[in-house]
Amino acid sequence: MNSDFKTMTMVMVRTGDRLLLGRKKRGFGQGKWLGIGGKIEAGESIEQAARREFSEETGANVQELSQVGRLTFTFANGLSELEMHVFAADRIEGTLKETAEIAPRWFSVKRIPFSQMWPDSRHWLPLFLTGRRFAGSFHYADEKNLLQKSLILIDDLVTTNQRNLPQDKVVKTKLIH
To answer: HEC states along 20-38?
Structure first.
């Protein structure tokens, strides 16, 4: 496995029964619908990076952000390990526009395009939609095949090792075939 480690951000905007997603237009994950975010630049906090990436990728801004989740991703094919900090917002300022990176679009929460998203989204996004805080780990064989998952509900976002959380916080841990 590649020893590189990348810290990333993702902003999920939900307004009423609508969820904002972006279709990735290039690079890793191209063609998939996902939350808006990206890499952290030198000197930025995780929240500053989330705001900057959202603005760069959509042309709009988010005001209040709340960190609701932390996800880690590993890949059997040697891609870098990713740590994703998930933020929630309930409104944007400005007009959404398509950029070279992302084509933003609102979806009804009843019609989320899970079949066109990363497979892990089926596991943590329903928790996000119910206002739950979560931490999770997902291991992929490649961009399509999720091999293993561990998803934990948490009352307050913690920075401790997930393995130290009580078993009643574990939602599911299983091997996926």
So the answer is: EEEEECCCCCCCCEECECC
Question: Using CA atoms, how far apart are residues 33 and 122, in angstroms rounded to an integer?
Answer: 12
The per-residue pLDDT for range 7-30, each reduced to its tens digit, is 999 999 999 999 999 999 998 889
Q: Which domains does the chain have, with CATH numbers?
A: 5-175 (3.90.79.10)
Neighbouring residues of 130: CB distance < 8 A, sequence distance ≥ 6? none
pLDDT tens-digit readout, 113-126? 999 999 999 999 99
Q: Enter the pTM of the model.
A: 0.84
Q: What is the spatial distance between Cα 104 and Cα 40, in angstroms, rounded to a whole number?
A: 21
